[in-house]
């Protein structure tokens, strides 16, 4: 007599391999971000050395040098141009990546997206709560509650490239997803909590070029007969106009980058049955602008934002006597892993989700500790919270740098050991017996 089929629904496996095409695409992104991370670290180190050298006055004079057009509220210091202008390119890539992931990536499936998205939310909420607890009762310093909430993907991937060359691609995808989602949350935080005054006429005017940008991005070939690679020649000036008007409205101008990124179409390939993105405008823009973001925009921002006069041991003592610094270090080094691992464990405990059998919880813990590297967005939020010339901002910079270094060292200790383990089994995973160009392990598992 045949056994009755089980009525228990199958468990949802998270941190599995995903599709081979997605693994290749993520690998390409991470290789580019690795180079960007190295440049970011070099730019930050150069700023720190210069800001603490006998020629420190030159660094601060350069950072505060003003240039621009006053009537459009664009007479800004070079440091502000880097934060408001160049970072818009970085957030444009964030918008593209978010849309790509949720429209055509593996995360378009709710059962694959829910765990990393929930983990990213936990990795934002717990650090914010820790910072708020440390700074409770101080209206002046509690404004920085969002500083320890973001992960710097370029910095984290640069560390991962050195220590984790043999770690499973699922872990790297998980780290990238965490960083992208908490970047989105950080964008929402900036838009909602760090917009002090909105100039409605400028905001309404900004909607016009944004609408034109979205329309032309969707219809560029029909109206202009352009190749996709040439579309940016028309879209870029419109995007700059939208950025300028949004900046004049009082909303942080980097939001324009995200909004414009969301308007770029993501085309699915019919040949692959839908899951994989074809060579549409989103993919072409990503290839063109990611080197600009990783190689220019983020390192230049880091150079102008990371420079802080530490002032020797007395300066460090003053920084870490400030609850701002204590809250940031505790939030990034402790809050990030607790929030990410804790939320993931709760998802596994109270839902049908379970960790893929090829991975261990220590792998997830190592990645969660690595996610405590907060840099680009943390520095931006610190400036928005306290202002460029505030002592709290300087203390926040010291704390962000210290916490990022601590997170990198701790994660290295965990992930190096795991990397040795996965190095031993990597050769088996790359076997391609049928010589179709896809490792058999991706074909044997039910995706």
UniProtKB/TrEMBL annotation:
What the entry lists under InterPro entries is as follows: Na/H_antiporter_dom_sf, NhaA
Q: Which reaction equation describes what this protein catalyses?
A: Na(+)(in) + 2 H(+)(out) = Na(+)(out) + 2 H(+)(in)
State the Gene3D superfamilies in the record. Answer: Na+/H+ antiporter like domain (1.20.1530.10)
Membrane spanning stretches: 35-61, 81-98, 110-133, 145-163, 170-194, 200-217, 229-245, 251-268, 289-312, 324-346, 367-386, 398-415
Query: How is it placed in the membrane, per its record?
Result: Multi-pass membrane protein
* Keywords in alphabetical order: Antiport, Cell membrane, Ion transport, Membrane, Sodium, Sodium transport, Transmembrane, Transmembrane helix, Transport
Classify the main location. Answer: membrane
Compartments in which it is found: Cell inner membrane; Cell membrane
**Family classification:** Belongs to the NhaA Na(+)/H(+) (TC 2.A.33) antiporter family.
Name the PANTHER family for this protein.
NA(+)_H(+) ANTIPORTER NHAA, SODIUM ION/PROTON ANTIPORTER NHAA-RELATED
Function as written in the Swiss-Prot or TrEMBL entry:
Na(+)/H(+) antiporter that extrudes sodium in exchange for external protons.
User: Know the name of this protein?
Assistant: Na(+)/H(+) antiporter NhaA
Q: Which species is listed as the source?
A: Arthrobacter hankyongi
Please state the gene responsible for encoding this protein: nhaA
